[in-house]
Amino acid sequence: MTASDREDPVSTATVLVCDHVRSAIGSAGMTAVLPSDVCFTPAGELCQRPDAIADASVPAGRPMGVVIGICGAGAGDREYAMHARRAGLDPFGVQVISLGDSPVDGRRAARKLRVAAARATAFHGSRPANSKTVFAGMDGLVSRRALFTLPPVRYIATPTVDRFLCAAGDGCDFCIRACPHDALAVDGDNVVVDRERCNSCGICIAACPERAFEFPGNSAGEIEAATGAYLAGGNETDSPVIDFVCQNISGIGPGDNAGRVSVACAGMIPASALLGAVAGGAGAVSLRPCGDRCTNGGGDLAGQRVDYCRSLLNVVGDDPGRIVLNTDGSTTAPATTDASVERIARSRKESGQDAVPKLFGAESTARAVVAIADSTAIGPVALEHESSPLGLVSVDRDSCTACGTCVVACPAGALRAEESDGRWLLRFDPSLCVACDECTKVCPEIEQGAITMRRVTDLAALREGSRVLIESDMIRCRRCGEPIASERVLSRLASMLGDEVSTGWMRELCVDCRALSG
Amino acid sequence: MIPGVEESAAPRPMMAELARLRQAAYRLLACSFLFPEPDLIQESADAARSLRDGESWAAEFAFYGSWREFAEVLSNTDPSQVTDLRDEHMALFGADSARSSIPLTETGYLEPGSLESGQIVASVRQHYASAGLAPRTTTAEPFDHLSVELEFISYLCGKEVDAWDSGELKDARIAMGRQRRFIEKHPSKWAPMVAAGIIHRDGLYARAAAAAEALLTHDIDFLAAARTHLKHAQLARGGAPD
Known about the structure:
The structure holds 2 protein chains of 2 kinds.
Chain A: E1 13-17, H1 19-25, H2 27-33, E2 38-42, H3 52-55, E3 65-70, H4 77-86, E4 94-98, H5 106-121, E5 131-135, H6 144-147, E6 153-157, E7 160-161, H7 174-178, E8 184-187, E9 190-193, H8 203-207, E10 213-214, H9 220-233, E11 241-246, E12 259-263, H10 271-279, E13 284-288, H11 298-315, E14 323-325, H12 338-351, H13 364-376, E15 382-384, E16 392-395, H14 405-409, E17 415-420, E18 423-428, H15 438-442, E19 451-454, E20 456-458, H16 459-464, E21 467-476, E22 483-486, H17 487-497, H18 511-516
Parallel strand pairs in A: 1-2, 1-3, 3-4, 11-12, 11-13, 13-14
Antiparallel strand pairs in A: 5-6, 7-10, 8-9, 15-20, 16-19, 17-18, 18-21, 21-22
Chain B: H1 15-32, H2 38-52, H3 64-75, H4 82-93, H5 107-110, H6 117-130, H7 146-165, H8 169-185, H9 187-198, H10 204-236
Helix pairs in contact in B: 1-2, 1-7, 1-10, 2-3, 3-10, 7-8, 8-10, 9-10
């Protein structure tokens, strides 16, 4: 029945709209606001006939995000999902956007569709393990005949782990610690998800420094893309307001012009996302948990993170009111400070940052903090806060033996061992430190105060970047040349054993060569 | 009206119809991994055509996409392609599937070359025996071959169909429980590895592996939800839990 208004063999997403939406926006108007890799296709009575998806010329056979823009309430998500499946599409990549009753406000509809299309381009498909089957309702008193009838089936997206990215083999277990439902466990070198326990809250996404989780519909990439689209387009009159909203909350707000980014749970939005949106040019950022009914503890997490972000904005000389926790369903947009936004926008332009900010994963917090601080031209300040997602490791040069145990234990790669000119170096990158405290737990010289970790966001350290904490000569085997241990370790051993035991032999041969030489 | 669920004008399918569809799907998938013979190809293609053109409500289920692609490829296959299919089968799975890069046996993945591989085979046989089956020792496929495991699930689905048809809710629950336990303990642990090895290729075997993974993964949740629903509903009606 229809032909694509823009044939594009490399399109990564498709926007389908009913005739009422099409006439409100106009095909030319729609193609003008959509990204170039998004295909725009009018689909007749899509608002009344979900089977019109099958008639539309949506390329099948590869992951494809699809936005369905309709007037009114439409036929319901389940119907659209079924017809999407029949059309060879992945239902988890289908966003049904209700654009209000006809006549549709074309300008507002175009803005909503543009953001949804950006989110759709970041959809990379789902695997069977991403789908959890649940029966909707039907418990309780039913007739005998009803027991023979299939109850309505719903599918909920659950996260899976990309085993190539997962760092569980290196000792990382942040997601396991963060999961409020004990749904994650280590199996070999990977984390695995127990779908029966998983509540699809996505809190693991916020905890993972490697961006290893795939969560179709609510992946880090999709949330970043939607946020980036709002930031890039603004609301045409004022600074954009980003409103991260738990998907259990319906209705609009705060403010009609707020950029609503729906997320699985408020607990899946880390501090890096709140700060990243501010650094990306948002006038204000709001985080809305669903309240007391949340079984994921999302409200508490959101509260702690917002408190940290506000404290940080205060410390770096920005307005803390730019980040708010919206727990009372307020529809008032947080105040935007245009001066701050202009500063950020200028700083972003100068640093050549791209339109889609990185809101998740390692370094995203540090990057956002430095960008905001650079815009206020603040000096070296630090914020010690119990919810700081960043930590600062320091070593005592007298008692640290440079044994490297902390390097092995560090799951985030913030502590690294290097060799240079025969010297062993312990490097620390504060932008990667996630304040897990694993380094102090394993340090054999902790009683001597060899290593300390403070939950602090230290601007000077972040600006300085990676630095050497301690170095030592490396003693090598005179036979095979392999390293034996650092000079500091051997000296420490000698001091522990005392003068009565000769320790010179330890510096001669490595363990293997000692065995060979008898 | 159930919150969050939209009522469709079409009547809901019966549990027996879905069990019948799953029985046929598992059987067809089991046949697809066997070494190709002209008769088998012809019968499978005919069955795939009839299933593909049949139940329109099947699109409601998450496995439908992969299942439809598989049925599409299989229904376009004919006996004249037997040589090509044999070459592909040999190239992918090898004559001795336990030693190929993509083995079609459970022991090939979970305990490759291990002396304890007998434990897996023993466990599989125990499941067969508990359903009253004693596999023939004269067949070419070992007991833990993907085809044999899928055929067994098909058999259990058949038991479920019988239970629904005769109105025996308790027997239906038992049959669903047997399916779930077997799927969870055996094929769901390794069929995704078969799929991961060939899913990016074209052709019948890649589509069959993807469909098997989708169906097995779906059924673990589905069978658990169905059994729980049945139990709660029976208790609410005053029936004794079984």
